Amino acid sequence: MSEQPFSLRRIAVKVYSPSLLYGVGLGAVTPVIALSALDRGATLATAALVVTLVGFGSLIFNVPAAMLTTRMGERWAMVMAAGWASLGLVLGIIPSNLGLFSVGVTMLGMAGAVFNLARQAYLAEAVPLEFRARAMSSLGGIHRVGIFIGPFAATLAMKWLDIAGAYWVGMAAMAVAMVVCLGIPDLESRAPVEEGQSRAGGSMWSIAKDHKHVLLGLGLGVICLSAVRSTRQVVLPLWGESIGLDAATISLIYGLSGAVDMLIFYPAGKIMDRYGRMWIAVPSMIVMSVAMVLLPMAHSVPTMLAVAMLLGFGNGVGSGIVLTLGVDYSPVSGRAKFLGLWRQLSDTGAMAGPVLLSGLVAVATLASGVWAIAGISMLGAGIFGYFIPRTKIRIDAPVAGEEYDHRPSAGQGDA
Questions:
Q1: pLDDT tens digits, residue range 134-158?
Q2: Domains of the chain in sequence order
Q3: SS3 state at 201
Q4: Which residues of 369-399 are buried (b: 16+ CB within 10 A; e: fewer)?
Q5: What is the average pLDDT across 68-95?
Q6: CA angle, 4 then 335 then 270, to 5°
Q7: pLDDT in the model for residue 324
Q8: Which H or E element spans position 44?
Q9: pTM of the shown model
């Protein structure tokens, strides 16, 4: 009896609904974290620092998340992460002090590290190679849709429950995500493990050492991409304020940029599956670099809107590229641990980008900082162009092996 052909649409609800719900929960509370910190006695500088604890929690927990996912399996790791995030959100509802509230924000970042790694590893096992980029792009895109929806749901709840309403929405979304994850079936891997090896793989150190060429080479491109993406969220509001736009106009421009971002994730994945990863990774970085170069030249609403939408387009084109490359280069034995290291690189870039911008603005100007980020984006384009092969993926390539023809050859970095 022949095996039923794979259909991404057939598994979409079970695979993507937890990511949508988790995104809604995260999006609901992100805009009010700083306000909640101010209500608990924080200064403006301290409130800004509290917001960064989400990223900090993810950064410090990527490696433990890999160990946890390896031990518990992807499904139960996602269940536990959603539950842990819910507990963190409780500290936003109860009248806690600033220290306890900060712990809750950090817990949200820790939960994100586990949930995001587990969902990526789960999808890597659920989807065959020829659909991988579309699946990963859709995963990233659906998560962004959730983050986009979250603030609107929180706004409705806050009409009756004040600022605590945002946390109630977040908790409800996380609780439903936890229940949905409980209903996801466990998967048997499509990819066989080599004789004498286990799926858990070796230690984190041994996996890092065995894949050092990928992590130190292509991983640098991931750091650049993540730095540009995280800085993009900062430079648009800052530049809008610097040219005298009001908060409502800046918010509208930012929202339209995000809308463009969300609209193109599936076509981007289809191009990666059909023509190769490089044909998305490199153009994405170049477009964002061009947009960053043009931003300091925008001095009106129409010009800034045009640049913001170009920036959103560049980011949207690259939707799922980090997830896809992580799975492409991950070994079957120890996949979750490799992905934990991969996410560590991504989070490092996401934390470093705004810090670099802040430092440059302090010693020079906002425009010089934006142009420096444009240079980092071009550096990332060059790294991706060098390390990612230009060849089309063979649809009949074995899922388990390290013989995909979209992997770099020895002459391209020994990855």
A1: 889 988 889 888 988 888 889 889 8
A2: 11-185 (1.20.1250.20), 200-415 (1.20.1250.20)
A3: coil
A4: bbbbbbebbbbbbebbebbbbeeebeeeeeb
A5: 91
A6: 50
A7: 92
A8: helix 44-51
A9: 0.81
